[in-house]
Design goal:
single chain, 303 residues, mainly alpha, two-stranded antiparallel sheet, 10 helices, 69% helix, globular, CruF-like, membrane, Carotenoid biosynthesis protein
């Protein structure tokens, strides 16, 4: 069992269990179903992608796995998906962003974490996961970024975009305390999100694959620009503060894990500029999360 795998998996599971427990205690069934929906979607999407394409496989040393090698998917990956979506939605909601802005903000917010973590994860313990047709090196090409395919980042972007969109739309229609509707959401949102994701990735992969790096950078930078312009044009921003430390703890763990691993792998000396990009994204994310946190009225069991 690798130390890096344990260092990622155990805190991820504990944070997820804490989130579920506090959401149940607070009877916040709408956000609980959002968390479970993202988890279900993440696990099933990963499993079917591996099963159908055999394009990559996960490390077998994770403690909790869904499926068996070579189609195994670590449960922690799905849990991380759920918490990334939950916290991103919480941040955009507390910044009181309208839906048309929230979708772009949440996608960029989550992808900023993924850009750093993916480059690190494929180099730990021989790779938390390994792609079959992508060389793990420190070059940047029109198909990959430091060994991570641009299509992976595009996939992450549209995963968050579509899941957020369909969750927001369904949450407007269903009763927050209706278990039947919440369970229906957990089933329907992954299905429609997967269909939308498959359709757009199919078009890009078969017709625009050569330009995948341009597509990703365009989506990512435009989303940041849209969010920034809105925030600047609507100053001062009315913020609904959270009494929970959970978003701050989650992003501190995510980025600190990546930064420490980057140092441990020696990437700081090899690609110093990427290390500073990671620190910049780390700083911006923590600044935003700190901004929405009410440190004077913290409640330990809030979420």
């Amino acid at each position: 069992m690798g130390n890096w795998i344990l260092a990622f998996e155990i805190p991820t599971v504990l944070l997820f269990l804490f989130a579920v427990g506090m959401l149940i205690k607070g009877k916040d069934y709408s956000r609980l179903s959002n968390l479970i929906t993202a988890f279900v979607f993440g696990i099933t999407l990963e499993y079917f992608n591996i099963f159908l394409t055999a394009g990559y496989h996960y490390h077998t040393d994770f403690l909790l796995q869904f499926g068996t090698p070579p189609t195994n998917v670590p449960i922690a990956i799905g849990l991380a998906w759920g918490m990334l979506l939950l916290t991103a939605q919480d941040v955009s909601q507390r910044l009181k962003l309208p839906l048309r802005i929230r979708l772009f903000f949440e996608a960029a917010f989550v992808v900023s974490t993924d850009i750093i973590l993916d480059v690190i994860a494929i180099r730990l313990e021989g790779g938390f996961w390994v792609w079959e047709d992508v060389t793990t090196n420190l070059s940047i090409t029109n198909t990959s970024f430091f060994g991570v395919g641009w299509m992976n980042f595009i996939g992450w972007y549209f995963v968050i975009f579509f899941v957020s969109l369909f969750l927001h739309l369904m949450n407007q229609k269903i009763k927050p305390n209706s278990w039947l509707w919440q369970i229906t959401k957990v089933i329907i949102v992954p299905i429609v999100s997967y269909l939308a994701l498959f359709g757009i990735l199919y078009l890009i992969n078969f017709y625009l694959f050569t330009y995948s790096w341009i597509i990703f950078l365009g989506l990512y930078l435009i989303s940041i620009l849209i969010s920034l312009i809105y925030l600047l044009r609507n100053r001062p921003i009315e913020i609904e503060k959270t009494h929970s430390l959970f978003p701050l703890l989650f992003y501190l763990f995510s980025y600190l894990f990546s930064v420490i691993a980057m140092i441990g792998l020696g990437l700081v000396t090899e690609v110093l500029w990427f290390f500073f990009v990671g620190l910049l994204l780390f700083g911006i994310t923590i600044f935003i999360v700190v901004t929405i946190t009410d440190f004077k009225n913290l409640t330990w069991d809030a979420i």
